[in-house]
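Let us work through a complete example step by step.
Step 1: write down the sequence.
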Amino acid sequence: MKQDTATDRKIQREVESELQWTPDVEAARIGVSVENHAVTLTGTVSSFPERMAARRAAQRVKGVSAVADELTVHYAGAALTDSDIAQSISHVLEASAVIPGGSVKASVRNHTVTLTGSVPWNFQRDAAVRAVGAIAGVGYVENHITLPVRPSREALAEKIKDALARNAALAAQEVHIDIDDDQVTLSGHLPTWLEKKQAGLVAWSSPGVRAVRNNITVGTE
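Step 2: predict the structure and record it as tokens.
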């Protein structure tokens, strides 16, 4: 397939502008390349939250079909070992008022943290990722925390459909929902990454959802 180089150059400029516009990202240290509407981010960032902010900034740009995150986290100050990071994680999880005590376990290898365990609600799972990701020395967080099964498949699908219909940004859009056990798969087409993300958040907000596979495509058809 012939590459749309003019459009790719336009997307590259807009991603670079969006990175510069994002206050928690040091755009000068991040490289942007685009091929067939797919963005690749390279360079260094100072923390895991900055890495995620850069990825989200690229996803917000209209026309972006995918984002490859090849960023590395450069740790400022004294070098931290995996043991140092693990101790900090233990303190953070124990001190959290949102995450149920003892519900989340963490392992650290080469500055990558793997979270396991089970919590009642998805916001608690997100809180664990945010809390751990903010710890100095963490380069990446793999989230394997599970959620309990609650409503039937039919009831869950109906709740998600109703929630999508209530959402002003998504009410006029066609989003298809498929539920296998407690995993929700979203498909269809939406104009922007922001709307795709919103649809995913709507699905996650339903009690009993343990996994969301967001297969919605974005961009102009």
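Step 3: interpret the result. The chain has six helices and eleven strands.
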